[in-house]
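Feature request, filed as a ticket because there's no other form

It would be nice if the structure record came with a short human-readable summary line next to the tokens. Right now we just get the raw output. Example of a typical job, pasted below so the devs can see what we mean:
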Amino acid sequence: MGRARGSARAQLALIAAVQVLVMATWFSASAVVPALRGEWGITQGAATWLTVSVQLGFVTGAVLAAVLNLPDVIPAHRLVAVCALAASATTASVAAFADGLGTAVPLRFATGVALAGVYPPGLKLMASWFERGRGFALGLLVGALTLGSSLPQLINGFAALPWRTVLYVSCALAAAGALLAAWSVRPGPHSAAAAPFAPRYMVTLFRERGPLLANLGYLGHMWELYAVWTWLPAYITASQAAHPGRTAGALPPGVTAFVAIGVAGLAGCLLAGWLGDRVGRARLAALAMTVSGTCCLLAAVVFGGHPLLVFAVLIVWGASVIADSGLFSACTSEVADRRYVGTALTTQTAAGFLLTVVTIQATPLLAEVAGWRVAVAVLGIGPLAGAVAMVLLQRYMTSVHSQTTGRTTVHTHEHDMAERRPETR
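Raw output as currently delivered:
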């Protein structure tokens, strides 16, 4: 038993490390937008396609993977390794060959397709190693994604590197992640057998009450998440520019964004995963979304204020905006058909990332028309609505658990009585 737990802990660390390394490719181009705007002569609105194309590619890859049931048919660690290598190659190609959006956008789209074979199968791998403590394990995985996604901001924030170098560093990290997945990561003892091909299961996920509520909560979460991750540096820059006399001693926007998104986000994921296994995952997800939705409103209030006040709000926002992500994955893995957990998680992420395309594009447009206060406040609509869905999911899961426990108790009682009853001759 001790050896089994040791193996699970080792795989927990390995799978998380793979996610950190490979997800550095996600925002690698977005982190160097200021340099690209100067070199390629593009507008801020046009530059959003460097992020939106990744989201669309991820959705496309996730839908294809879900329809073909790839995460449940192909060994997940092999799928992760191949797709991580593809993400590395497409990122390197942007640095080597792109001279404008016409070349960069298709390559970034391909990066998103590849990443759809890294993150959802990674969730399935992690779930295969844990039944008890699954919430914490999945929280760590989402924290790893958060940390990896924010690495380009740190690389670009601390060192004045050429934009191609930032992409090459991200490419090298992803390649290392691919090798680690191929050589060291393996499925756990709780893996289900390879499932039969069932493309209609995607529809079932939006008909059954449990998966439906989990998906609605996730959509509310994703309404906010990637818009915050994409535009937080721009929000910080605009906030500091509103009162330049208050910026003495303030960290560079990229570094502040890394601390809020990466460091605080990782801490939020770990804390939520640990608490979720104890107080109820859906209940805690509702609380996290309530906090992050409130932070959207607070970010509007403190915009242009003292950097320390803004920083404090951003730390809480960065921790709460991602804290619930692993909880959604854990809830979905519990209410979905065990044979199709990979398909369920992939479908859920596909729907969520498709929604992010809307908010990523709308946020800077709204900021330009109505200001950053309105833009960040509108982001609060999603998490506050999603919190309602998760409260309902908690009630549903509690009801199902009570019914299951009741049936088990009755069955055990009848079995005991039968054993005590004298044999009739």
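Something like this underneath would help us a lot:
The CA atoms of residues 283 and 391 lie 6 Å apart.
The chain has 19 helices and no strands.
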